[in-house]
C-alpha cells in the first residue's frame, strides 16, 4: 500500500485521492454510495471546490460522521476579502464541518501574497488563526503562477495538472515542490480523458513519491479500478513504458487538455470538448462523439468570430480558434 506525505502539512494518506468534481453530475444518492465506498476502501483524501456546484454538499452528506478520519481540501475563486469569507463559511456549512484541512486559491491569475493589496493571503492567515482552515494551498493551470507559489514558501500545497504526458517543465514543478517541502496534489492524471489506461497513469505516478493524485471519480467502476491499485499496484514494465512513449509521441506538442479556462465562448462553442475532438474520437469509443448532439456542437465552430477571448485565457498558450478549425475539418472527414 503506497502512502504519500503532503510536504510540510505532514498529512499522510493513501496514494489515491478522490477528486469530487464529477460527483456533481450524479444524483445525491449515487454520490453518497460512491463517496462512502471510497472511504470504506481506504481513500482518505477528498478534494472539492466552491465552484463545483453541490460537490461539497454531497461530501458533507456522505462523510460528515467520519470527518475526523478523512482530509478535505476545497477551493475558493474569491477575488475580494468579502467573497473569500462568504465562500469559506458556505464551504464549511456545505461540508458539515468546522474546519477545512487544506483551503486553496482556485486557479488565480496571480500568486496572492501578503501586502499585495488584495488582502486575500491575509484572509487565509486569519482563517488559519481562527482554526477554520489548517493549511494554505493554491491550485493552478499556469506554470508561472505555480512556480512562484512554490518558491514563495507561502503555500503548503500546490495542485497542478500532471500525468505521463507532462513536459519537462511540469516535472520540474514536482521536483521543486519536493525541494521546498510543498505537498503536490496532482489533478488531471488522466489528462482530461486522453489517457484511457488508469493503471498506466497510476504506475507512472508511483515514481513520484511526493505526488498525490486526485482521480475525478463519477462511477463505481472507476472507483473500483483505483481501489484495486491500492491492493496491487501496477508496475512500470517495459511494455507500459513503450505505451507511454508511444502516447507521448502521438500527443507531442501542445494539445487541449479540456480544462475549460477559455470558456464561456460568446458564440456558445464548447471549446474544451470541440478543440480536442480528434483525440477523443481516436482514443475513446467514438460513438458518443458522433451523435447528432455533438455534430451540432461541432457545427458551431463555423460561427467563431475570432474575438480571441479563448486564446487570452488558455493557460497553455494554444491558438484555440485554429485548433477548433482543424478539429472541425477532421470531424467532417471522420463522419
Ligand atoms: S475566438 Fe472563436 S472560439 Fe474563441 S472565444 Fe472567440 S468566438 Fe469563441
Ligand atoms: S483551449 Fe486551452 S483553456 Fe481551453 S480547454 Fe483547451 S487547454 Fe483549456
TrEMBL record:
Alphabetical list of InterPro entries matching this protein: 4Fe4S_Fe-S-bd, 4Fe4S_Fe_S_CS, AKR, AKR2_Oxidoreductase, NAD(P)_OxRdtase_dom_sf, NADP_OxRdtase_dom
Superkingdom per UniProt: Bacteria
Keyword Iron-sulfur belongs to the record: yes
Family annotation (Gene3D superfamilies): NADP-dependent oxidoreductase domain (3.20.20.100)
Domain 4Fe-4S ferredoxin-type positions: 294-324
Annotated keywords: Iron, Iron-sulfur, Metal-binding
GO MF entry, a single one: metal ion binding
UniProt-recorded name of the protein: Aldo/keto reductase
Source organism of this protein record: Coprobacillus cateniformis
Lineage of producing organism: Bacteria, Bacillati, Bacillota, Erysipelotrichia, Erysipelotrichales
Amino acid at each position: 500500500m503506497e502512502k504519500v506525505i503532503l510536504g510540510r502539512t505532514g498529512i499522510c494518506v493513501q496514494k489515491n485521492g478522490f477528486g469530487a468534481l464529477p460527483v456533481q453530475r450524479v444524483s445525491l444518492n449515487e454520490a453518497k454510495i460512491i463517496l462512502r465506498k471510497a472511504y470504506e476502501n481506504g481513500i482518505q483524501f477528498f478534494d472539492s471546490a466552491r465552484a463545483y456546484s453541490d460537490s461539497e454538499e454531497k461530501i458533507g452528506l456522505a462523510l460528515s460522521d467520519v470527518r475526523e478520519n478523512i482530509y478535505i481540501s476545497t477551493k475558493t475563486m474569491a477575488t475580494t476579502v468579502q467573497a473569500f469569507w462568504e465562500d469559506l463559511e458556505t464551504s464549511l456549512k456545505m461540508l458539515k464541518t468546522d474546519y477545512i484541512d487544506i483551503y486553496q486559491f482556485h486557479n488565480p491569475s496571480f500568486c496572492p501574497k501578503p501586502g499585495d493589496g488584495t488582502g486575500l493571503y491575509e484572509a487565509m492567515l486569519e482563517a488559519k488563526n481562527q482554526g477554520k482552515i489548517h493549511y494554505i494551498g493554491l491550485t493552478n493551470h499556469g506554470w508561472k503562477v505555480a512556480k512562484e507559489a512554490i518558491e514563495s514558501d507561502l503555500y503548503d500545497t500546490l495542485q497542478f495538472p500532471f500525468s505521463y504526458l507532462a513536459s519537462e517543465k511540469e516535472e520540474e514543478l514536482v521536483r521543486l515542490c519536493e525541494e521546498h517541502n510543498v505537498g503536490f496534489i496532482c489533478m488531471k492524471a488522466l489528462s482530461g480523458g486522453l489517457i484511457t489506461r488508469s493503471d498506466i497513469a497510476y504506475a507512472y505516478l508511483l515514481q513520484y513519491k511526493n505526488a498525490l493524485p486526485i482521480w475525478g471519480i463519477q462511477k463505481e467502476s472507476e472507483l473500483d479500478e483505483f481501489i484495486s491499485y491500492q491492493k496491487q499496484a501496477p508496475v512500470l514494465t517495459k511494455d507500459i513504458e513503450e505505451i507511454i512513449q508511444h502516447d507521448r509521441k502521438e500527443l507531442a506538442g501542445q494539445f487541449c487538455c479540456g480544462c475549460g479556462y477559455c470558456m464561456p465562448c460568446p458564440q456558445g462553442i464548447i471549446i474544451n470538448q470541440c478543440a480536442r475532438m480528434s483525440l477523443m474520437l481516436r482514443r475513446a469509443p467514438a460513438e458518443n462523439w458522433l451523435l447528432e448532439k455533438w455534430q451540432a456542437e461541432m457545427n458551431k465552430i463555423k460561427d467563431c468570430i475570432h474575438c480571441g477571448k479563448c486564446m487570452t485565457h488558455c493557460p497553455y498558450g494554444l491558438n484555440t480558434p485554429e485548433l477548433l478549425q482543424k478539429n472541425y475539418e477532421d470531424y467532417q472527414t471522420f463522419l
